[in-house]
Amino acid sequence: MAHPMTPPTAKLFWILALAALTAGCQLEIGFQADTKVLPDGSVTRTTRYEAFSLSDKTELEKRYELPPSGQWEEIAIPKPPVAGEPKAPETHHLYSVTRRYAPGEPMVPDHGRKDEQGRLGALNRIKLSIDETFFTRTFDYEERFRDGGSREEAAQALQEILEAWIARFSRLLEGKLKKQLAAGQIQEVFLAKLKPLLLRLQDQIRFQGGAALRNTSFFDELAGELEKEGMVNFFLTSFPPPAPQKAPLWKASAEEAYEEAEDFLEEEMSSQSQGAFFGAYGLPILQPDYTFHLSLRLPGKILYANSTRRQGKALVWEFDRFHFLWDDHILHARSRVVRTGRVLFLGGMLALVLALAMVYSRRWTS
Questions:
Q1: Sheet containing 120-132: which strands, arranged edge to edge?
Q2: I need a labelling partner for 123 at 20 to 30 A (CA). Which of 39, 236, 247, 318 fits?
Q3: How far apart are CA 290 and CA 99, in angstroms?
């Protein structure tokens, strides 16, 4: 049954159009981690998950492997008055935990989201390595986020989704027309029609990665090409009814086949393809935005960092889930501590040796 809209459109078109409209919706779930590395190599890391509503808290508890030993608390967020009328504050739900690691102790992941089957799909991996010389200590910090398969797997998954839907639509239409047309004929014509669109979207996936799904044009193109009226008209143009009096029957059959097939496509997009295409976060429609805010403090002088910005002595990374869909999103920073005491001690020893050498040299010449 088509979703009620004005003007009426198929549910599929509504879903895809809504994806574009919600691409920049208000943040509802946030992940924050603040990491501090001390000169001895020990680490303190505080992890926070913020849910902007009770339903988001439920999602956190259901879909995330929250770090153990954390605490929930409620935070009242003031809202500005509307037309002079005061508004009740929003209640946010915050889960936080602080972990401390001894020098050399491996750091464990603290971001893990489960897919529809309950398997951990989106993970972060943290690594701190320390390179020591007599004069310096170099800290190399790396944190990786990853979700979904590869870009090529995602491009292939999109092709499989569209091909499966066209095959379903063609079989349904064949049945409704009492086999006056073969499903293979219908499928071949529609695949040829959609091939340019598929190639364009696959190129976006291959070249842009997860950012392609953040771009509203991705869903705009899908919605435009797969819109019900256009698909039905294309069918009637490609396969004219054998007689004028059969035109209403052929049109009604195409509309019914489309509406029945769109439920199948929605299931394909939200479940079977999720791992390779949408990852553990799923179809980015009617879902909250997820943003990530991570800060890092390293001892010594920063030699390199790919952070978004600096805030005082902290390196700050800010990104969303599309940054690590189909790719490793790597947070990397390096710093160096100069062991001033050893440098001064060695310098003093060298000065003493030189002074003694000069004294002995003068005695020898005299």
A1: 112-114, 120-132, 136-146, 329-338, 301-305
A2: 39
A3: 23
Give the integer Cα–Cα distance in Å for 74 and 114: 24
Which among 292, 296, 294 is positioned nearest to 36, based on CA atoms? 296
Q: Which residues have a Cβ under 8 Å from the Cβ of 128 and sit 6 or more positions away? A: 37, 41, 43, 107, 139, 140, 141, 142
List the beta bridge partners of residue 138.
131, 336
Location of structure tokens 């409620």: 74
pTM (2 decimals)? 0.77
Q: Reduce the DSSP state of residue 24 to 3 states and report it.
A: coil
Work out the burial of residue 236: count CB atoms within 10 Å of its CB; fewer than 13 is exposed, 13-18 middle, 19 or more buried: middle
Mean pLDDT, the chain, whole residue set: 82
Q: What is the DSSP letter of 134?
A: S
Contacts of 258 (CB under 8 A, 6+ apart): 10, 12, 169, 228, 231, 232
- Which is higher by pLDDT, 309 or 14? 309
Describe the crossing of helices 216-226 and 183-208 by its angle, rounded to 10 degrees: 170
pLDDT in tens, 143-175: 999 987 889 988 888 888 888 889 999 999 999
Predicted confidence (pLDDT) per residue in 12-65, tens digit: 444 444 444 444 444 478 899 999 999 999 999 999 999 888 888 888 888 899
Give DSSP secondary structure letters for 142-193.
EEEEEBSS-HHHHHHHHHHHHHHHHHHHHHHHHHHTTTSS-HHHHHHHHHHH
Compute the Cα dihedral for 217, 221, 227, 230 and give only its sign: positive
- Check: CB of residue 92 under 8 Å from CB of residue 52: yes
What's the CA gap between 237 and 57, in Å, rounded? 50
CA distance 176 to 250: 9
Quote the pLDDT of residue 302. 96
Tell me whether residue 47 is exposed, middle or buried, using C-beta atoms within 10 angstroms of its C-beta: 0 to 12, 13 to 18, 19 or more: buried
Q: Quote the strand ranges of 102-155, DSSP E.
A: 112-114, 120-132, 136-146
Question: What pLDDT, on a 0 to 100 scale, did the predictor assign at position 25?
Answer: 43
Q: What is the pLDDT of residue 10?
A: 42
